[in-house]
Design brief:
Distance between the termini: 25 Å
Number of strands: 4
Largest sheet: 4 strands, antiparallel
Strand content: 25-35%
Oligomer: single chain
Low-confidence stretches: none
Mean pLDDT: 94
Strand order of the largest sheet: 2-3-1-4
Helix content: 25-40%
Shape: elongated
Radius of gyration: 13 Å
Number of helices: 2
Length: about 90
């Protein structure tokens, strides 16, 4: 028996980390946005590593289903510049 840990819809934070390259945050935003069916990203923040070699982008969204989250993570993980997602 599988229990859902999330009750949809809910606010959910997605984090993508990668090397500091031009446009990294815009790419993460575009990937997440295309799965929101017209909804907007509720919050977006960017943070550089201490050495400025890496960057993390956190997006808070109103998630509507597990399938939506799975699709977002699949698309993010298919990007070569994204090294890790949480």
């Amino acid at each position: 028996m599988s229990e859902e840990l999330l009750n949809f819809p809910c606010e959910f934070q997605i984090k993508a980390m990668g090397k500091q390259v031009l446009g990294f945050d815009q790419r993460v935003r575009a990937i997440v946005s295309r799965h929101l069916a017209g909804a907007r990203i509720l919050d977006l923040s960017t943070r550089e590593s201490g050495s400025s070699k890496y960057v993390s982008v956190s997006c808070t969204i109103e998630a509507t289903s597990r399938e939506q989250l799975d699709a977002i993570y699949m698309d993010l993980n298919s990007e070569s510049d994204i090294l890790l997602t949480l």
